[in-house]
Amino acid sequence: MQILSGAARGGSVKTDSPPLPIRIAALYQFARFDDPAAIKPDLLACMEDAGVRGTLLLAREGINGTIAGSDESIETILAHIRTLPGCSAIEVKESRAATTPFHRTKVRVKKEIVTMGQPDLDPLAGVGTYVPPEDWNALISDPDTIVIDTRNDYEVQIGTFQGAIDPETSSFREFPAWFRARLAELEAKGRSPRIAMFCTGGIRCEKSTAFARAEGVEEVYHLKGGILNYLEHVPEEASLWRGECFVFDERVSVGHGLKPGDHSLCRACRRPLSKADMAHENYVRGVSCHRCYDERSEEQRTRYAERHRQEMLAGIRGRGHIGRKVDSEADG
């Protein structure tokens, strides 16, 4: 397998447009926090004082989240995070927006910063080999490479890499069982697989590649920085990405150059919707879409309709609806 380098690599996507005012920072760091609950108060106070919105998750295994604010306020939060144990070199993936994609400021303490249901797994000890975006095309174009999209089904639905396997999982907890079954199939055929995994921002692959190695797979690769890093640095004309990338904020999806995509969000089931989806007879803004219509009762749809009405009234009055929940757990 040949990895491209130098002039063969794609250059960064550039734009001459003036920067948009809101800076969005997606970040994670696997670290060892003895007492994550003790970290929460100062971190939350720092975010509130700086006027930063978004969600940060803390666990004994580290920190994960996406935040938005002015350049100065984001720098303030990043400086604070870099003082935490094991976080001095934390990597941050950034983009910009005209308005903040979040409506709340939250710090949550969890059992895992990305939930896989494998509490004994230590990504710090066994992660796969990182592959920079510029070298990813060569790796996944090799016919001997098995390319796996580790994201959930509703994310894969709107975009993925050419030739990637979709595990069709509804949550990351389902991935270990799916992987073990798939690995058993390969081993039955006498194959020693070379596996390349990817996810939105890289965090899920920290766990999925460590899991694959713990299951005995020796050659495991991981797209460094995830799809967002790839879309930022690989030009569209050289890209093997097809569609858009789902993100866990009000942008819903992004494309090459991290430009906002064309998808909206069903407020009932949180699934991304294309323009064609919104033309379906079962789509009612704020209430239902064709995927969740049969999953919800009439009573639930009535509640959703009232919630949507309250949100619209709050918007007209120029203030956020206090019951509104728009941002999901950070899950890169």
From TrEMBL:
Pfam families from the UniProt entry: Rhodanese, UPF0176_N
Keyword terms: Oxidoreductase, tRNA processing
Catalytic activity: uridine(34) in tRNA + AH2 + O2 = 5-hydroxyuridine(34) in tRNA + A + H2O
Enzyme class: oxidoreductase
Domain Rhodanese, chain residue ranges per copy: 141-239
InterPro entries named among the record's database cross-references: Rhodanese-like_dom (IPR001763), Rhodanese-like_dom_sf (IPR036873), TrhO (IPR020936), TRHO_N (IPR040503)
E.C. number(s) listed in UniProt: 1.14.-.-
Superkingdom, taxonomy of origin: Bacteria
SUPFAM superfamilies linked: Rhodanese/Cell cycle control phosphatase
PANTHER family listed in its UniProt record: RHODANESE-LIKE DOMAIN-CONTAINING PROTEIN 7-RELATED, THIOSULFATE SULFURTRANSFERASE/RHODANESE-LIKE DOMAIN-CONTAINING PROTEIN 2
Family: Belongs to the TrhO family.
Function of the molecule: Catalyzes oxygen-dependent 5-hydroxyuridine (ho5U) modification at position 34 in tRNAs.
Protein name: tRNA uridine(34) hydroxylase
Record lineage: Bacteria, Pseudomonadati, Pseudomonadota, Alphaproteobacteria, Sphingomonadales
The gene coding this protein: trhO
